[in-house]
Amino acid sequence: MSESGANQILSERLRQLEAEGWSANHDDAFQEGELIQAAIAYVLATTSDCCCVGGMAENTEAFAWWPWNITNWKPKDRLSNLVRAGALIAAEIDRLQRLSTVANTGSSGR
User: Fold this and answer.
1) Domain segments of the chain: what residues?
2) What average pLDDT does range 77-89 have in this prediction?
3) Which of 10, 15, 32, 46 could form a disulfide with 78 if both were Cys (CB 3.0 to 4.6 A apart)?
4) End-to-end alpha-carbon separation of the chain, Å?
5) How many CB atoms lie within 10 A of CB 62?
6) E-strand spans in 24-106?
7) Can you state the angle between helices 34-44 and 78-106, rounded to 10 degrees?
């Protein structure tokens, strides 16, 4: 049996943290929705009219959502793109939770 989708997303998120070096501090700098925009780009890159050629998606709608440098845009096959999108969504959830914790701690007056 192959690894579940949730486990694949977790593995990708851990890879992003360990191999790519994207830390919580790094992710916290993206306050304009960049993590979600990147996830949307990867989701859109899964559509059947998107072919990945030399690391570039021919689907311009997908790439239009990409918030960062073109060298970081690395779409692959449909499954890999969905896993990457899921990991980016997890990163945004973690970022929002950290932000909420800081806001709640700061507003307690203690």
Assistant:
1) 5-102
2) 95
3) 46
4) 51
5) 23
6) 52-53, 56-57
7) 160
Burial class for 3, CB neighbours closer than 10 Å (0-12, 13-18, 19+)? exposed
**Burial class of residue 63 in the structure, from the number of CB atoms within 10 Å of its CB (0-12 exposed, 13-18 middle, 19+ buried):** middle
Sequence-distant (6+) residues with CB within 8 A of 109 are none
Q: Tell me the residue ranges of DSSP E strands in 1-108.
A: 52-53, 56-57
Question: Does residue 105 carry a pLDDT above 80?
Answer: no
Query: What does the pLDDT read at residue 110?
Result: 44
pTM: 0.81
> How many C-beta atoms lie closer than 10 Å to residue 65's C-beta?
17
Q: Identity (one letter) of the amino acid at 73?
A: W
Confidence of residue 44 (pLDDT cuts 50, 70, 90): very high
Query: Rounded to an integer, what distance in angstroms lies between the CA atom of residue 51 and that of residue 80?
Result: 13
Give the residue, 72 or 108, on which the prediction is more confident.
Answer: 72
What is the pLDDT, as a whole number, of residue 8? 97
